[in-house]
Amino acid sequence: MTRPALPLRLTVLVAILAVALVALPFVAKAYGSTYAITLATRLVIYALVAVSLDLILGYGGLVSFGHAAYFGLGGYVVAILAFHHADGSSVLGLPGTNEALITWPLAMLVSAFAALVIGALSLRTSGAYFIMITLAFAQMLFYVFVALKYYGGDDGLAMARRSLLAGNRITDPQTFYYICLTLLAVAAYVVHRLTRSRFGMVLSGAKASERRLAALGFPILRYRLVAFVIAGAIAGLAGALFADLARFVSPDMMAWTKSGEFMVMVILGGLASVVGPIIGAAAFILVESSISGWTEHWQLVFGPVVVLIALFAPNGLWGWIKGRSGP
Amino acid sequence: MSALELSGLAKRFGALRATDNLSLSVEENELRAIIGPNGAGKTTLISQIIGELRPDRGTISLFGRDITDWPVPRRALAGLARSFQITQLCAGFSAIDNVALAVQARQGHSFRFWKDARRDPALTEPALAAVEQVGLGARAETLVENLSHGEKRQLELAIALAMKPRVLLLDEPMAGMGHEESQRIVALLSGLKGKVTILLIEHDMDAVFSLADQISVLVTGTIICTGTAQVIRTDPAVRTAYLGEAH
């Protein structure tokens, strides 16, 4: 009844990947590079978004083109609360705060709620309409934040300091990196369990045959909506982390191009796996940063790379690796 | 009380009357066959019973409850199961996984997020039993896309059985099967006879005549005649409308 476990070579590969992620700050420190550690943190945060998007895109088969909305909302929750904390004012009758133990869960909650509303309306459609409606909702939020001059509008909103975590200021970039990495590991494990549970069977069953699942007695919309909300919450957490990393948020975080980048990461890495999106995010960030080192028009190079991968590794990088290491 | 009762059912597609003031009553634990020439409206009828199509007029009741406005999943949970004429299986899932989903549907909601469903004996054991019941035991772990046409049809039936239905709608379960496979299904259905209400749509006349308690003949969207195999064989209206001169 059980599926065969991953072949040994793949297990080793995943282990190497995990060790590399854990060891990275030490290497960066040896070279005295804070740029590398910031880059690695960004990679881990994007991987978190990619893992969340894969739950609906890969496992659920729902092409949501608005995932950046939840990422951006999460970021704004942290930045807005920090902004009000700094000038002692209140927001919606509540005082601001820069305590991550409050702002990060709140970011998840706000993003989850947005996903609930957007999902409840968009999941009634399918195919191209679903893609367009999720895109439209994300663009609406984008323009709301562009118009919010009080919070910087187009220019974004900077945070004077990084959040406190249980009262401690996280100034050390290494510590912050490990916090992000831990959260990625937890989220990846949660998604891994989720996709193999009864809930996950319904979610991927509905992707394979909606008619069959309805005929079996599953109200599919409800299951998809729950997946949507979970994915939104994780993306919101990633947005919160990103706000604290950059100490800056802007509407660009929820731009449609950002949603597109997240989709590229998931598809590049391999749909419907937990390792795939992490590899995809890593590949995306590393290629982007290395090419943009010598040309501003890095997408000119990256575009063809994506085309080549789509042609020669239709199941993404992870699918390609798995295919090469035997059945 | 009838297990399944259709009254005054009508469904039009433009000028075509796919279902035309159709009434039908199937008793509990009866095996009723529906035969009719191609285009008589058999699949349209099944789609309305299962809830994928809404009738323009008329009512459908299941054990006395009016289910005409119920959505598909609710009907399924009330005990209505179907097999698809064109198999609808979950690709990427093994045969047993497909059946396990049916078992899962019967065990309350599936908002269970942690335990590995493929290692849950509450799902795997009944699923394996249903797979073995249709003779696919050896192929349980095979991905459905690698099953033969006949095996897919057998799996359709295993899924329907795993739903433990009160009323089973079978849309040409033997279409495209080899003789041996058909024989197995006929044997299986005669074993189910008297234990569950079955509405069988089938072209294989030998199977229909040997299995059915009663046969209803559907022509241009309406039932023209209902009776035992003996009655149907000899009814002159049926002979002209359906069995034709060749029979």
Describe the fold and architecture:
Chain A has a domain of 201 residues. Chain A is globular, with a radius of gyration of 20 Å. Chain A contains 13 helices and 6 strands. With 327 residues, chain A is mainly alpha-helical. Chain B has 247 residues and is an alpha/beta fold. Chain B has 2 domains: 161 residues, Rossmann fold, CATH 3.40.50; 77 residues, no CATH class. Chain B contains 9 helices and 10 strands. In chain B, α3 packs across α4 and α4 crosses α5. The mean pLDDT of chain B is 92. Chains A and B meet through α6, α7, α8 and α9 of A and α2, α3 and α4 of B.
Summarize the structure.
The complex is a heterodimer of chains A (327) and B (247). With 327 residues, chain A is mainly alpha-helical.
- Run of helices and strands of chain B: EEEHEEHEHHHEHEHEEHH
Structural class of chain B: alpha/beta
How is the CATH topology of the largest domain in chain B named? Rossmann fold
How widely separated are the two ends of chain B? 36 Å
Per DSSP E runs of 2 or more residues, the count of β-strands of chain A stands at 6
| Radius of gyration over C-alpha positions of chain A, nearest whole angstrom | 20 Å
Mean pLDDT of chain B: 92
Q: Main sheet of chain B?
A: 6 strands, mixed
Sheet with most strands of chain A: 2 strands, antiparallel
CATH architecture of the largest domain in chain B: 3-Layer(aba) Sandwich
Task: Bin the strand percentage of chain B.
Answer: 25-35%
| Secondary-structure content class of chain A | mainly alpha
Overall geometric form of chain A: globular
CATH top level of the largest domain in chain B is Alpha Beta
Beta-strand fraction estimate of chain A: under 5%
Give the termini separation of chain A. Answer: 18 Å
Read across the widest sheet of chain A, the strand sequence of neighbours is 1-2
